[in-house]
Write a structure and sequence with these properties.
Layout lengths: L2 E6 L6 H15 E4 L3 E4 L5 H10 L2 E7 L5 H10 L3 E3 L7 E7 L15 E3 L19 H9 L6 E9 L9 E11 L2 E16 L6 H9 L4 E7 L1
């Protein structure tokens, strides 16, 4: 079941200040907050790839060889011996790992349907294993400290004080991205905090009262998770 998101209409000059604000909101308005769940967004620009080279060794790659431009790009990665696959002979849909090297810079931007992510890569997890979906607040601080132009989406489940229902309630933090149409989309240099209310309470009198009494400058509602 989806939730309703309200953007906090405040300006944040950098990622640490947005992170600090997200934590302060949950501390001031919630009875409990879960561990943060971070998710790295795909590397979509040449600038992001150049930065990733300075901090990461390996990335995950996903795609469909039938999509425009994906097959030739994958063939080039094979030729440069930098890609390995989860399956020895991948079919149309594939997943694997890419060694990040400076001589791949000329391939950017990648075809639209070819996805490169760092979500399984140090310091966010072992590059050859699936990361734990949750992290500690100290680990999150470490992530943000090395993020640079890369995009990160973080969520915390919350028990908002005064609401009778907590399902799909929480805080959403987007770094170098924005939440739109139920997904986070790249938006370099933009840092935002969203409040999430579950569908069971968002439009109830209790939900409306909570939004009014929170004291937060909230934007228009939009669908999220």
């Amino acid at each position: 079941m989806s939730s309703t998101l309200y953007r906090v209409r405040e300006s944040f000059p950098d990622a640490p200040s947005a992170l600090t604000r997200a934590r302060a909101i949950s501390r001031d308005l919630a009875d409990w907050t879960s561990c943060p769940t971070p998710r790295m967004e795909p590397v979509t620009t040449a600038e992001q790839y150049a930065y990733a080279l300075s901090a990461f060794d390996t990335a995950r790659i996903y795609g469909n060889q039938g999509e425009p431009g994906v097959g030739p790009c994958l063939d080039e990665l094979r030729r440069r011996t930098v890609v390995t696959f989860d399956n020895e002979e991948p079919n149309s849909w594939f997943a694997g790992y890419v060694k990040l090297r400076p001589d791949l810079t000329d391939l950017w931007p990648l075809p639209e349907r070819l996805t490169l992510t760092l979500d399984s890569t140090s310091p966010f997890g072992d590059p050859y294993s699936e990361p734990d979906p949750d992290c500690t607040e100290d680990e999150l601080d470490q992530m943000v400290s090395v993020l640079g132009p890369l995009a990160l989406n973080v969520s915390w489940d919350c028990g908002w004080r005064g609401l009778p229902e907590f399902k799909n309630c929480g805080v959403q933090l987007c770094i170098n991205s924005v939440w739109t149409r139920q997904i986070a989309e790249p938006s370099p240099g933009e840092f935002g905090v969203w409040i999430s209310l579950g569908a069971r309470v968002a439009w109830t009198p209790e939900g409306q009262t909570w939004r009014r009494d929170s004291g937060l400058p909230l934007g228009e509602p939009q669908q999220g998770w």
